[in-house]
Amino acid sequence: MKIKIINPNTTQAFTDALQTLGNAVCQPDTEIVAISPINGPSTIESFYDEALAVPGVFEEIIKGNKEEGVDAYVLACFGDPGLYAARELTSKPVLGIAEAAFHMAVMASACFSVVTTSARMRFMTEHLVTRYGFDAQCKKIRTTPMRVADLANSPDEAVAKVIAECISAREEDHAEAIVLGCAGMSPYREKIEQAAGIPIIDGTVAAIKLCEAMVGMGLGTSKVLTFNWPRPEMKTN
């Protein structure tokens, strides 16, 4: 099967890291293709950034259907930008990393906290938790004094901040697992888990593995009503 990881921002270093991660965790018969849209924000750290990123996500899904033979898609930004609309553009599975991570976290633990980037991301993350129905299981949203780009430019310092918040979540929130609230944290999951001493859920890996399961089950996006094609001329399979 072929899984396309769409990094909705245009920072190639993040896309390259997602390709490496995908290659490492996928099944031997799974092909991973990680891309960034041609146009979009360099990082996604606001609702405005998310809105700018969505058209590029749509373009990559349409291209994947028409030209690339893609079997499933992963939206590798924790805001899951354009996820529901993207599902209207394909009959294939489309998974956002936040939704995938939350589902995986509650299968692995009774409750979790989210560790994300700057304080500006708190409300956006709370909105996701509520939208997906995980208010009861989510103990707290923890932010860190960093920008997304810090994970590429000064990863050691950035990861240390994430680890500190994970330890605080374990000790103060009584969280039993941590969801990483940024795709830029994905390559550091094992390091964070080893240092923090608590299960760490990375949404990118969760989404890849769930995509493999859905394709293996022959399960795609329902076109019965809600995620039906937006209009007949947009049908791209």
Automatic annotation (TrEMBL):
PANTHER family for the chain: PROTEIN DCG1
Species annotation: Oceanisphaera pacifica
Family the entry assigns: Belongs to the HyuE racemase family.
Coiled coil: none
Gene3D superfamilies assigned: 3.40.50.12500
Protein name (database record): Aspartate/glutamate racemase family protein
InterPro entries named in the record: Asp/Glu/hydantoin_racemase, Asp/Glu_race, Hydantoin_racemase-like, Iso_Racemase_Enz_sf
Signal peptide range in chain numbering: none
Pfam families tied to this protein: Asp_Glu_race (PF01177)
